[in-house]
Amino acid sequence: MSTYDKPSITTDAARRAIDAAIAKANENGVAVSVAVTDEAGHLKAFVRMDGASFAAGRIAEDKAYTAAAFGVPTQQWFSILEGDKPLRDGMLTSIDRLSTLGGGVAIMAGGKIAGAIGVSGGTYDQDHASAQAGADAVSS
């Protein structure tokens, strides 16, 4: 049999990532939802801060899913797709849950994707900063 090992974020690390993201959101004065997925994009942990919109929850999950699936921060997707109409049209219509909004960042372990974090509720820059803080807190 042929197999390979791949890293996957632990529940403890997912909680630490959420705590770091919430701390950054608090610094920015915004109420957000934070979703952490494993390396396959499956939800591992989730928090919706008091005052965060209900819609922000699903958006945060989609941002995390996109970052886990592709390993690219979601805020980079707009510029990636901007100059490539066939790719843009194909990606946006054929890949369910793809998010091009800032706030999704892969969580890395030894150069491999171990999970991802998605944040929604602020501006895309605020969401990205919170997601990056969460990822930085647990990536190696």
Number of helices: 5
Specify the CATH architecture: 2-Layer Sandwich
What is the β-strand count? 4
Taken together, the total number of domains comes to 1
Averaged pLDDT: 93
What coarse outline follows from CA principal-axis ratios? Answer: globular
Oligomer: single chain
State the distance separating the first and last CA atoms: 30 Å
Sketch the major β-sheet: 4 strands, antiparallel
Order of helices and strands: HEEHHHEEH
Brief sketch in words of this structure:
The chain is an alpha+beta fold.
General description of the model:
The chain is of the alpha+beta class. It has a single domain (11-138), classed as Beta-Lactamase. Helix content is 47%, strand content 19%. The chain contains 5 helices and 4 strands; from the N terminus they run αββαααββα. A hairpin with a 2-residue loop joins strand 3 and strand 4 (112-120). It is globular and about 40 Å long. The relative contact order is 0.24.
Topology:
Blueprint (H helix, E strand, L loop, with lengths): L10 H18 L4 E6 L4 E6 L5 H17 L6 H6 L2 H10 L9 E6 L2 E9 L3 H15 L2
Antiparallel strand pairs: 1-2, 1-4, 3-4
Features:
140 residues, alpha+beta, Beta-Lactamase, four-stranded antiparallel β-sheet
